[in-house]
Automatic annotation (TrEMBL):
<dbReference type="InterPro" id="IPR037523">
    <property type="entry name" value="VOC_core"/>
</dbReference>
<protein>
    <submittedName>
        <fullName>VOC family protein</fullName>
    </submittedName>
</protein>
<feature type="domain" description="VOC">
    <location>
        <begin position="3"/>
        <end position="121"/>
    </location>
</feature>
<dbReference type="InterPro" id="IPR029068">
    <property type="entry name" value="Glyas_Bleomycin-R_OHBP_Dase"/>
</dbReference>
<dbReference type="Pfam" id="PF00903">
    <property type="entry name" value="Glyoxalase"/>
</dbReference>
<dbReference type="InterPro" id="IPR004360">
    <property type="entry name" value="Glyas_Fos-R_dOase_dom"/>
</dbReference>
């Protein structure tokens, strides 16, 4: 049994996706990397990046291949600092910070259009 929880994202460019997640969001490259499939790891999350030629992408029904229906959720201690760091690196966001009773969040997209939520919990 794996020590990770795995999530699969369909991407159109596997190397670009690996670059994005490792450069900007603190993931490290996993043990698999080729033009069809790669994995990246951050804490207990193993993100499976499946390109069009991968078996994972081919097994997905055509009407379910739209990016953005789900999102991974990454937690940070200082959301403002993280946003500033990413903007300085050229990463754009899909909107502004939204704050609610549980904390603050902002969304960005990876190169394939998959959503990533950056979150800072409310002070307790």
């Amino acid at each position: 049994m794996s020590q990770y929880a795995s999530v699969r994202y369909l991407v159109d460019d596997v190397p670009a996706a690996v670059e994005f997640y490792t450069r900007h969001l603190g993931f490290t490259a996993g043990g698999n990397a080729n033009p069809a499939f790669a994995d990246v790891i951050r804490g207990p999350l193993r993100l499976l990046l499946s390109g069009p030629a991968s078996s994972g992408a081919r097994a997905t029904p055509a009407d379910a291949k739209t990016a953005g229906a789900n999102r991974i959720h990454l937690e940070f201690d200082d959301l403002t600092a993280e946003i500033d760091r990413l903007r300085a690196a050229g990463v754009s966001f899909t909107g502004d910070v939204v704050t609610g009773p549980g904390g603050s969040q902002i969304l960005l997209t990876d190169p394939a259009g998959n959503l990533v939520e950056l979150f800072q919990p409310a002070a307790r």
